[in-house]
Amino acid sequence: xxxxxxxxxxxxxxxxxxxxxxxxxxxxxxxxxxxxxxxxxxxxxxxxxxxxxxxxxxxxxxxxxxxxxxxxxxxxxxxxxxxxxxxxxxxxxxxxxxxxxxxxxxxxxxxxxxxxxxxxxxxxxxxxxxxxxxxxxxxxxxxxxxxxxxxxxxxxxxxxxxxxxxxxxxxxxxxxxxxxxxxxxxxxxxxxxxxxxxxxxxxxxxxxxxxxxxxxxxxxxxxxxxxxxxxxxxxxxxxxxxxxxxxxxxxxxxxxxxxxxxxxxxxxxxxxxxxxxxxxxxxxxxxxxxxxxxxxxxxxxxxxxxxxxxxxxxxxxxxxxxxxxxxxxxxxxxxxxxxxxxxxxxxxxxxxxxxxx
Length: 357
Description:
2 domains; alpha+beta
């Protein structure tokens, strides 16, 4: 969503802090310190200050009670409140105009670029209404232009800095979750994705296939052709695993050394077909000393073979061991669930437990 909050918790706290300060401030400076002013003005400022305080308490204690549209609407509501208070107090001084900085900074920090610039337009209109009502024309024009330009420049600076921070955060996130050699996800990203995939499968949102891959005789590749050739072989394996996927709902990860893992939204048969495509892509790779490496592969699928991430890793690792013990270069599928659960296992789960390649 284009108007989604950048930081829900931060936005809630920012609104709460402002309201909890603005409410008492207006009650003190607009009511207690101006008891001689007209009654309707004191009542208006008093009601507004009390409302701000109440909203601040609500944002602090129970923000979930507020509708989702409240948060993107806040800069416009705040602009309207500031404009109304300036009208009520007939105050067009620079000090009161600076209160417009809060809705501007909130919009530029937590909302979209579009809302931030719309807030600048709203502030410009509100400030114009005040200064042209209480100042002479020359002074009003000067104050209005100066404030509008200052607000626009402030919004641009904050938006630009946020965009830069977002790019840096994306780079750091990628570095923290990606294997530098192969470009595959690392163990940290894999563990998180595995738990999410198994959780989805447990809720009935499709199957989650875990595929564990070992490069056969990888030490021999390093010893015979050198570590540079070994690195090229690992990169070729990662490329083949990525190329074999036919959808975007997959994850290829390097768990360490010559061990890879793949997460797919597929059942046993779909996972088995995926491994065939991966082998075909790897076999077509050229330029590797000694040719493309062979792979031993184990497959486990939730919820067919296991109901939690640890159990799924356990049965899949056992299938990988079975593939290696059977002569390597093979794909083995974890055993089907116990027979008393067979009525609950979809027909796809009856895929063969091992296939020779």
